[in-house]
Amino acid sequence: MSKYRPWLDQRLDWLLSTKNTDADLVRRGRLLSILLLACVAAALVFVVIGFAVNVSDGWVYQDEVLLFVISVIATGFVFALYCLNRVVSTRLASIVFLLGSVILISFSDDPQQLIAGRSTMLYVFPIVMASVLLAPSTSFVMAALSGVSLFALAATNNLLSAANLSTIFVEIILFLILALVSWLSARSLEQALTGLRTVNAELDHRVADRTRDLAEALIRVQMESSKSQAILESIADGVIVFDGLGKATVVNPAISRLLNLPPDQIVGYRIETLMAGVVGVNDQKAVLDQLRNQESSIRLPGLRLQWGNKTLSASFAPIQIQQEIGRGTVAVFRDYTREAELDRMKTMFVSMVSHELRTPLGAIMGYGEILQEQVHGPLNERQLNVVERLIANTKRLLSLVNDLLDRARLEAGRLKLMPAPFAPEALMEELVSTIGQMAAAKKLELITSIAPEVPQTLIGDSQRLMQILINLVTNAIKFTDHGSITVKFDRADRTRWSLQVSDTGIGIPPDEQVQVFDMFRQVDGLTTRRQGGAGLGLSIVKQLVTLMGGDIQLVSSVDVGSTFTIVLPLNHTMEGARD
Amino acid sequence: MTDYPLALIIEDDVDLASIFADALQAAQFKTEIIADGAVAQSRLKEVTPQLVVLDLHLPHISGEILLRQIRSTPALAGIKVVIASADPITADILSPESDLVLVKPVSFSQLRDLALRLRPTI
Lengths: 579, 122
Known about the structure:
The structure holds two protein chains of two kinds.
Chain A: H1 4-16, H2 23-57, H3 62-87, H4 90-106, H5 111-116, H6 124-133, H7 138-156, H8 162-234, E1 238-242, E2 248-251, H9 253-259, H10 271-275, H11 281-292, E3 303-307, E4 310-322, E5 326-335, H12 337-372, H13 381-412, E6 420-422, H14 424-441, E7 445-450, E8 458-460, H15 462-478, E9 484-491, E10 497-503, H16 510-513, H17 526-529, H18 537-547, E11 551-557, E12 561-568, H19 574-578
Helix pairs in contact in A: 2-3, 2-4, 3-4, 4-6, 4-7, 6-7, 6-8, 7-8, 12-13, 13-18, 14-15, 15-18
Chain B: E1 6-10, H1 14-26, E2 30-34, H2 37-43, E3 51-55, H3 63-72, E4 80-85, H4 88-94, E5 100-103, H5 108-118
Parallel strand pairs in B: 1-2, 1-3, 3-4, 4-5
């Protein structure tokens, strides 16, 4: 059924089609075709009936034969009109059709009866049809034509009586009223159709405009997103975007290579799942801490972690993905394996070289002391002076090598603390005896104090504490020309103790304060460069303090002085002290 | 000179051994330098020194083994042992079995003064 209908529609369309292109003419052509086809059908019925009647009567009655012949001619004529409408001109076919109708009506009845009004109403057909098939106003032409034909009929048949003339007059008035009605309705129909067509055209235009705009916008969006996609796909760093719920939503090919996982085994998973089994517990904790700590503005520059057999550096940044999804995180991973290996080799190298340097330096020191002690005979004053210089320089070199070795051990994580009970008082005394001479040489006062809250005994690596204090105090002496160095041992809070080293030296400008703990860093400037040291001291202090689980802080102002404060969790066990 | 107590310096670094020898001589010891663990082991069967300065990294037999052997030999019971090592952790582990631990670099005057204290009291 559904297939049959379009076929029928197509055939009907073909039957009613004309060669017109104008929308109004197409409509009129179709209407005329319908009318003409109906007429052809009606005429054919007459042909068939006439044929049947004549065959049964033996073609003897003149009227019956005439009817048949007229039927055949009418059929041919109407069909010819249909063809005219179809291939030549709808307007011409309409005019012929309407004129033919008027003529046919005029001869369809007895003239007197026609004038008297028996079949006058047949004229309604051409008048109404004219307004529909031609222009609306042509209904008046048809009305006039109908009136003229009635008058002509009366004149030619000698029927121009007063009664007939008045009837014809009334009929012409009626025709004109009918034409007026036809004209009005056809006109309003045409106006409505024209309006509709304008609206349609406008609508079509607007739809086309919108479609074009939309297509352009789509292309733009697609280009933008493909650009971002191309960037994401070609960068060497691995990228994972986690949504607000912690699930991976976007990954790039680099992360697949780094983690050795296909993208579909990353997308949709949480970082905890991805890390399980391939990342150590401590590294996992560090990653999760950073992920949860997104809100804080202070971020560690880059987390280093062991992921399977690779060393990765990871950094995290919060992003606003979409309004409804909320805050997410973009994680960037970089392969650090090669760098980590180089780092390890560098540390090993430094450690080895330092060790190899230390042995001959130790020997030089020893021989120097033998000379100084005059074991093998007396030296004169100038010789003693040379030996003293020799020893002083060797000491400097030795302490630099020791610093390098400590630094290498700290970096490799091979420096182990050896906590044992110690007396803070003894620590301070040793400090003064070791370094007091150096302060005195610069005419600086070295003040030490221990708060009453500090117990007699604490537990910690006193050797390393001593190293920290010597480094800080040596540093303070180096950068102070007059005044004093103060070392305070105090209680910071319930479980922690503080060591504070203050000087009245040149101070450190604020922008340099953050770098002060970096390796090989001395605050720049000729005055400070003049001071010896490779700048390892503070970096070792920082690392040692960190190793002890403590914190170091610096407060400094230029030309006023600097204060380094170390806060350490030293165990305070009286039981241990008594043992 | 023959009355001075004997000190064995078991150290493979020639310079350090020489400095130790000078320091111990300054502390009035008679000194003998041995640079090899195995040689030291057999020498300890022949002589009974008052003092042994022991390096831990030695060829053939390590200082650690020598220390344990000295401590388990009744004939060597009275010997004072000074460990001189660059490795503070191992030295620390062995400190209960030794009389003194010196972490290298060992200074001349330091060893001389300590050795004076370790001299047998007459």
